[in-house]
Amino acid sequence: MEVFRENFTPKITLYDGCTYEQALAVIWSRKLSECEVAPNPGASIRFHDDAALLAFNFQFYETTVFLDETALVSPAEPRAFEAYISENNLESSVTRTDLLAMRFYDTDDQRAFEAEAGFGTAIHIACTDHE
Prior knowledge:
alpha+beta; seven-stranded antiparallel β-sheet; 5 helices; 37% helix; elongated
């Protein structure tokens, strides 16, 4: 199985509405072995103001994935993102949602996880060096 993992680019999937503990319970109950759950949540920050989004993009372009008016921020440095929003008084210009990050090495485990957890949609991104 290790050979499979070495030659396979895992997919990171982000879920809204599932906690780390809930994910572990699903992994345990389904005996899923080809996935990992990140212990710290990432976040989705939706900007209601284009200027604020652009400024945030300039500040965090190396560690953030941008999808339209939404920034998917890494759990690696949540304080930096939160401090930026606070220091620039952007609280009323953004909507923040915590996201559970899962890394799947095989689609069977992903389908089993989503069926058990009741997810119909998720955000899929290619595996990157940013975690």
